[in-house]
Amino acid sequence: MLYYTALVAVVQLFAGFFSSALMCQQCGGHKYEGSVRLSREECCEATPVECKSDQVCLRALVNSPYGNFFLSGCHAAEDDLIGCDYHALPHNSSVLRCVCANAECQNDFTGDCAVGGTQTTTKAASFQPTSSPSPTSSQSPVASLPPLVMAPIGRTIRGLSAGKRMDGSESVEAALLREPDRRVLSIQSHVVHGYAGNKCSIFPLQLHGFEVDSINSVQFSNHAGNVEYLTLPTRYEHVKGQKLTDTELEELYEGLRLNKINNYTHILTGYCGNVDFLKKIADVVTDIKRKDSNTFFVCDPVMGDHGKYYTPRELMPVYRDVLLPLADLLTPNAFELGELTGSTVATEEQCLAAIDVLHDKGVRFVVVTSGVTDAQSEETLCCYSSVREANASSPTRYRFTFPRLRGHFVGTGDVFTALLVAWLDRSRGDVSGAVERVLQTMQALIKRTSEFAQSQVESNSRACCELRLVQSRCDLLKPPPAEGILVERI
Amino acid sequence: MLYYTALVAVVQLFAGFFSSALMCQQCGGHKYEGSVRLSREECCEATPVECKSDQVCLRALVNSPYGNFFLSGCHAAEDDLIGCDYHALPHNSSVLRCVCANAECQNDFTGDCAVGGTQTTTKAASFQPTSSPSPTSSQSPVASLPPLVMAPIGRTIRGLSAGKRMDGSESVEAALLREPDRRVLSIQSHVVHGYAGNKCSIFPLQLHGFEVDSINSVQFSNHAGNVEYLTLPTRYEHVKGQKLTDTELEELYEGLRLNKINNYTHILTGYCGNVDFLKKIADVVTDIKRKDSNTFFVCDPVMGDHGKYYTPRELMPVYRDVLLPLADLLTPNAFELGELTGSTVATEEQCLAAIDVLHDKGVRFVVVTSGVTDAQSEETLCCYSSVREANASSPTRYRFTFPRLRGHFVGTGDVFTALLVAWLDRSRGDVSGAVERVLQTMQALIKRTSEFAQSQVESNSRACCELRLVQSRCDLLKPPPAEGILVERI
């Protein structure tokens, strides 16, 4: 799926402002649920709103394979269309777009731009199909209101518009005021110092307004992972602490169950080093899903990377046979994907074939986070998303190409998955838009971490290689534009 | 101490804007450390800045008992002076204040307002001593630049300016971008569901940019505390989970110590139910302070309330004889203050006398959070702050009176203390300003929690009485103006 706002990025608007406030019939009012295919009724109640002085009222009729729908809203010049939250567009849609004048802004829109007064009071738009080979080239402004243009939506390079779509124009304060009414159960490790597991997941989710109930599968002084950055030590020399047993996990969950507070919209699991504990997690997930089948289970099947296990091999069949059938979203790397499907995943083709195996087992969303070696280069890395809807014949897939940054730090995968939960929820299932936002934040986080490590390298301390997560809280909330993120439908 | 901006609240400025940008010699540049007494050199490097179109350049010379100093900065009309971060003013200071014209804005300021051009290009200020009996009454705007007025700073009612002082004008985004470079070790309880202990402390501190290393003294499914709200059950029926032993705490700390990552600017402790564990906490604090005597230890000596212990009585002598002598800031309620000092604390006089006992034992900051019964009314509650500096003959004390809100919820004290750490640090030790901000946030948090509980009361579930902490993240970061908070020096 593509966002309407991705189109807007190549639209040139005349400069100039309205002298008086413009009323616009904006989608607003009641919440809508679930679907990204929004008929006007499904979407929300259309309410007249007053556009700010530097905005226009933008209206669009979308003809899509899933049914036509209507969009409208106040629109900042050269910025996103802000209306019914996201306006995700199905593929193979076409769009009739119109910047309207005061008179017709509050009327229904059937695809015809009104004729009266538009030239004097509106900004005119020149529309360019997004399949343009040169999406950055400027279009000449059109001196009078142009005819409406059918704008086919297809394969698009979105790197240049990164960070300007969905609700990119939403202020940080508005994002902090969101109350998504979501409750996550996150079962992961806890480290006192530094970042791994729950220390990576809880804060980003809370920042996005999620209630996070966290069960700490271990409490360690610090993580035990390897980092790679310049000449710095790759590991902490010591790791001390305690592990939660499967019996203790059962006891904790029993407390939640007996008090009837085991109600979750999401469950999130990550690293787990023990077969019995992993099986107990599966019991917990099963019980919560029995109570509410809508609970969305996000499973990061952490087992190893680069061809090697760093967890016991005995975990794999438990992930494959017990956790995987419960998962709504699975986030393996290429190695884990290969192990779970009994295949080698080195090429994109192998990756997509293996993803299909997971879909066949009932996993709706798959995000392969890294490690498809043949798709990588010296400068770039890749990840993949795939969604297969229950009644769709084939999955919708995207390739994300992004710059390879210096350094490998512990906890990046855990932050990635937590942010994916937040954005997937906020985009109501638009996995490609969500992954793009997550990548934007991850690039900023890794750069900040890397720069800090660089500045501290003389201390020769492992401590300076911890993720700069708290320092990145603005980027966690509002992904910054990131150069060079390429999103392609495949 | 009072903030200069508290004075500004009663200053009337002419309306009107500069037509061109104004350069102002603003304190900026390098960081300064520690002191609230800022000579210009100590403060920071003065740098010319361009004031925004709706700002004036405001300059002030402060004559204080601790030495004179200079303030300046771009100043939003009727808003705070923004210069060297906070501009905390010592008591018994006087201020020479001047809104300057373009010509002299970049010069030093010795207290004389330049004569040339000021009337045409600056906003004139009428100055009113803050001891005015009617701080809300409007002053007539002065038609020409007024003579400078010595403004004695003294006892002031600040409720009306609540939320507009310190950096009240800072945007939420700017607050999210702050990097205070602080690292807290927080040793408290962990509950999977709901709010108590570390679940209350970590998020607010992280939101303010603090690195939080958290040691969970227990992992329980939920808290065991009593709430009072309408007809709702006062307790969860079940509590399940595990406790950390003193040996396990020692082991965790050993991991930090061996890796040389036991470096903290702050230590924060709260509820602890076990004598041996509390003694081990004292060992940890002692060891960290041995390494860095500047580490600021904030101890909430949680023992009981309303005349009753809800922890073992054996904890008291450990708090009194072992923890207290290590503490830089102690946050007892009246009952705990009484127990620690062997006295009854029912009146303000008794409270202040007991606080003196703590100061005599070396505690610099004391905040008595609640429970001085004779100072309370049906409508209001009180808390007290007291600071005794090493070389000062007597402590500086404040009484805070604030509206009594319906409902008693678990975890409010833990949020209070965490926010106090954040604001005390941000105000560089201005405890009265910090407490006021904390109270503003607490009022908003309790109101939101109470309203949510009210809306859910039909479910008759304890779960709806949990603090609405995540939903209050904007208020945690930027305290909202709260009606009826009265701050008085006593």
UniProtKB/TrEMBL annotation, chains A, B:
Residues in the signal sequence: 1-21
Start and end residues of each Carbohydrate kinase PfkB domain: 183-449
Keyword Transferase: yes
Compositionally biased intervals (Low complexity): 128-141
Source organism, top-level taxon: Eukaryota
Protein name: pyridoxal kinase
A single GO BP: pyridoxal 5'-phosphate salvage
Family matches, as InterPro entries: PfkB_dom (IPR011611), PyrdxlKinase (IPR004625), Ribokinase-like (IPR029056)
SUPFAM superfamilies per UniProt: Ribokinase-like
EC number: 2.7.1.35
Keywords: ATP-binding, Kinase, Nucleotide-binding, Signal, Transferase
GO molecular function annotations of the record: ATP binding; pyridoxal kinase activity
